[in-house]
Amino acid sequence: MGTVVITGSTKGIGRGLAEEFIKRGHNAVISSRNPADVEKVSRALAAIGPGKCSGITCDITDKSQLQTLWAHAVNEFGQVDFWVNNAGMASSRHAIHELPEDITRTLINGNMLGTTFGSQVAMTGFREQGHGALYNILGGSFDGKRLVPNMGVYSSTKAGIHLLTRYLVEENKNQTIVIGMISPGMLITENWFDEQKKLSDREWQKIKPLLNVLCDYVETVTPWLTDEIIANTESGKRIAWMSTGKMMKRFFAAKVLGRKRDLFSRFGL
To answer: Is 102 exposed, middle or buried (0-12, 13-18, 19+ CB in 10 A)?
Structure first.
């Protein structure tokens, strides 16, 4: 069994991935900027076994802290087999010219700079130890095929991560290193709810039917993603939960067959 390092892993998809790796007997190193969250979640994940869990605080916009994260994982478990650049900021719904400066900086620094620094640290470590697998998280409109309103800056960072990862694949094609991308789909997480709270009730009711088609719970998606990550040996692969075929089947089931999904009643929405 191996060791996975996941940035931004005290909640949401990061925590879900860490939990699934541990359930499969792998060791997980989790991180976030909040020491209390790291301590609490480390204890909770260590208890589920059979894999072990260790945690450390890390600000991904500081490369030296990411280097410390790598060193911590090696000191705890001997080596790093998987590195997932998950930490970053979720979408913020503003037109580009209306996005506040502080949110703009957080989006670009967390998503683009953090993923770049994390990739640099992981690739240096993997080259030294002779193996490893790096995965970067994609998101909304990363390929520019469909422009989602009021997500221009967020989607631009994900497009940058997509291109960055393609360069990493090209630059390391002669290495025994797997480099891939993960498209987890639209997951109902804490950050996702923070975004929805900004909507009026009228806006929420308007988009709710669409979200019931497209969204999923973290606990539904992360087991599949984890198995795909562990099994994958193809560098350059994008592991995508919501394929075009799956999306079409869901719309068909909802509109033609009348099969309605109800994802939000458990949250009182």
So the answer is: exposed
